[in-house]
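Researcher: Checking consistency across runs. Here is LRC20 protein again:
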Amino acid sequence: MLKQLWYLEYYGYSLDHYIVTDLAACKLISFPEGVYKVLRSVTDNIHVINLADNELKAVTSKFIATFSQLRVLNLEGNSLTQLPEIIGSMMHLTSINLARNKFTVFPENLTTIKTLQNINLEGNDISELPLEKLTAMTTLQCLNMKSNPLNKEAKCFSQPNMTFELLTTADKE
């Protein structure tokens, strides 16, 4: 990790403009404390974090509070079952990828994020959706629920005033 940051500084990239943090496939079981320390002065400038394909079982409130300016959060391919309540306070988040985790219940705290445009929960084990709360999300454009054992109500859900595309093909049998 530090070698990567040193490499960026060495080649003249300022961390003041560094807005993407890619820690995909690093076998992380939690977000490293050292990364908080290294990035503490630039957390407001980090708009994208990729933590895909790690071994995370939880996202902490500290992580959400520290990176409150995120626009895109990729947590695909971990072992998450829930999100902290504080995630609802992420006022700038537009896209969250939670595909291939271990969710059995739709994380309803996502429905309180007013800027959220894309939610990817493909490949989890979710059977029900909070349809009323989802239709109230005025900025939501796409909800990917492919490869989930959705109940009939969720699979067939459609409303004339629905502002988002609900992807449900290739569902688990």
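Researcher: Does this match what you'd expect to see?
Model: One thing to look at in this run: The chain has one domain: 2-167.
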